[in-house]
Amino acid sequence: MLKLAKTVSRNHYGRDKVVPLLQSAKTTVALTQASAVRRQEITHLLARWTLVKEQIATVEADLAERVQRSPAARALLTLPEVSVVCAATIVAELGTPEDYEAPRQVLKLAGMNLVEKSSGTKRGRTYQSKRGRPMLRRQLFLLAGRWVKQRGGLYRGYYEALLARNGGCKTKAVCAVARKLVPLLLALAERQEAFDRDRWLAGRHQGTVAMEGAAAS
Fold first, then answer.
1. 24-64: per-residue pLDDT in tens?
2. Closest Cα to residue 79, out of 139, 158, 163?
């Protein structure tokens, strides 16, 4: 129970909180009737959960096999923090990477292109359109979130600079990093080659990020 509580709460509930809760549960919420039926119900729920986990494992194994048959997906897997699900989703949503002339087309497909809400001659705030494919947008956002958490990561300096400029709004900064990821992901998928960190930092797209990372360190 302690291990489960720590996992679910992400280490916010330790022994000092779990033990009193268990002791309290014995005298406040414990069932005094139909215990055999309740026990049977719990057993059925656990069996159902075991079946679901087995099905998920089967699907993930099949997905991993399919990803290995896709050169574009294999190239994406060489990026840090890119999982099989992430690579498979991006490739499936993009279709043929060579069909895109510019990264902005991918941003529009994902609904991450910026639009401005204005009224007459008055300019309003800029926000993401969110009119594209939500699964692609979600994977880009999650990947960006994983990357900015890493000290010394490729976009850590860029992320911290954004936080300093926007008053510490983390969600807005992660969205900006997600948009910044698109040229890199599209280039790897098109070329179908493994990610080379040094080569990418030396490229014209990442010169600014490299300088920010050096300044941050």
1. 877 776 566 667 787 888 899 999 999 999 999 999 899 99
2. 139
Contact 178, 143 (CB under 8 A): yes
Q: How far is residue 112 from each of residues 24, 85, 149, 165, 192, measured CA to CA in Å?
A: 49, 20, 21, 20, 24
CA-to-CA distance for 207 and 155, rounded, in angstroms? 12
What's the pTM value of the predicted model, to 2 decimals? 0.68
Q: Rounded distance, CA 179 to CA 169, Å?
A: 16
**Alpha-carbon span 92 to 103, nearest angstrom:** 16
- Residue ranges of E strands in the chain: 114-116, 126-128
Q: How far apart are CA 90 and CA 76, in angstroms?
A: 9
Residues in CB range of 136: below 8 A, 6 or more apart: 89, 90, 93, 94, 109, 110
Read off the tokens for 1: 């129970």
Decide: residue 146, CB within 10 A, 0-12 exposed, 13-18 middle, 19+ buried: middle
The alpha-helical segments, DSSP class H, found in 78-113 are 84-94, 103-110
Question: Could you tell me if 132 and 108 are in contact, meaning their C-beta atoms sit under 8 angstroms apart?
Answer: yes
Residue 193, Cα to own-chain centre: how many angstroms? Answer: 22
Cα 33 from Cα 36, distance rounded (Å) = 8
